[in-house]
Amino acid sequence: MGLFSSDEFNIGDKVRVKYRDQEGRIIDKNGDFYMVSINNGQYVDSYSANELERCW
Question: Which of 29, 19, 27, 28 is nearest to 53 (CA)?
């Protein structure tokens, strides 16, 4: 019911940053944050699981 485990995503997963409407791939995990590479590494930032959604 809206609760996610800290391992919801894996390195290599394709995800969308909800509030930016941009897609990228998870390249690392640091604590509760996932590092996402957007535009083939031109932009990298960390996001919590609730800011991300899986895309195919």
Answer: 19
Q: Which of 27, 23, 31 lies closest to 11, judged by CA?
A: 27
Are 4 and 50 contacting, i.e. CB atoms less than 8 angstroms apart? Answer: yes
Residue 36 in contact with residue 28, Cβ under 8 Å?
Answer: no
State the CB neighbour count (10 A cutoff) for residue 55.
Answer: 10
Burial 6-45 (b: 16+ CB within 10 A, else e): eeebeeeeebbbeeeeeebebeebeeeebbbebeeeeeee
Q: Read off the pLDDT of residues 4-42 as tens digits, 9 standing for 90 and up.
A: 444 589 999 999 999 988 999 999 999 999 999 998 889
